[in-house]
Amino acid sequence: MVGNDLVDLQFAKSESNWQRKGFLEKQFTIKEQQLILHATNSFNVVWRLWSMKEAAYKIVTQQHEKRFFAPHKFECSFISEAEGIVFFEKNKFFTTTFFNSFYCHTIAQKTNDKLAVFSSVGMPETIDCEIKKRLQELTGVLVEEISQRKSSVGAPLYYQKEKIVTNSCSISHHGNYGAFAFTLQK
Amino acid sequence: MTKEELITKLSAIVKPYIQNEEAFKSLNENTDFINDLEINSANLVDIILDIEDEFDIEIDNDSMEQMLSVKATVEIIQKKMNI
Q: Quick one: CA dihedral A26, A31, A34, A38, positive or negative?
């Protein structure tokens, strides 16, 4: 199972004000608020934590097909500059976050097995096309034969006719960027 | 306050965050904030804070959890305002 979340940092700067009264309290646990307030770059920590929570949420909704908005239930810890863990109820998700000056992209997994995940960041309009191209490269199935379907909660799945090709797939859009992460059917 | 008045106030609150104009024009009880209006999840918190200010209520985490549609949000506001 894989989930991913992308934050366009310029867009986040203009569209969200993390310093707004009440914003941190609604979104983050006390422990996370401490991480943010003690950081040298609080803005980056806010969006790293947020993308970790969202990436983990996208795994949960693939499993349970139920949507909800409970950022407090996903508690994040940092392991290293890029790696982290998100705890949700009895589950534990492993995350890797990539930062540059344009965006922050987190991939979350149920196991700590990075090799099995295929992912990329691009433009929002071309993400579907890029996934199909990557699937063609990996499986030999032609792009024209691959189609996207949605699960009942809107999680994307890719099919070759009636045969499901992706085991787990997550698409994220924010501002000028789009991103995907998927694993293949064994 | 009637339910219609509540929905009118709520639509003014969500307007700055919507990304799908067409869905906003036909906003109704069944409208979903993320699937229909394409609001960024990070902005859901802004909407909740705006609702707290506008209606002078406090929204706890359990209520916030369900606030993904107009219908659920209206019900929570009504409950908190005892109307």
A: negative
Token pair recorded at residue A43: 């803005």
Q: What ipTM was assigned to the predicted interfaces of this complex?
A: 0.91
Q: B3-81: which CATH topology?
A: 1.10.1200
By residue range, what is the domain housing residue A100?
Answer: 2-184
Whose CA is closest to A26, among B3, B19, B59? B59
CATH of the domain at A28: 3.90.470.20
Query: Model confidence over A66-94: pLDDT tens digits?
Result: 889 999 999 999 999 999 999 999 999 99
* Interface size, chain A vs chain B, as Cβ–Cβ contacts under 8 Å: 45
pTM: 0.94
Asked whether the beta carbons of residue A7 and residue B43 sit closer than 8 angstroms, the reply is no
Query: Which of B32, B41, B69 best probes binding to A when mutated, by most A CB atoms within 10 angstroms?
Result: B41
Instruction: Please give the residue of chain B at the shortest CA–CA distance from A15.
Output: B43
The tally of domains found in chain A comes to 1
Which residues are A76's β-sheet partners?
A86
Per domain, the residue ranges of chain B are 3-81
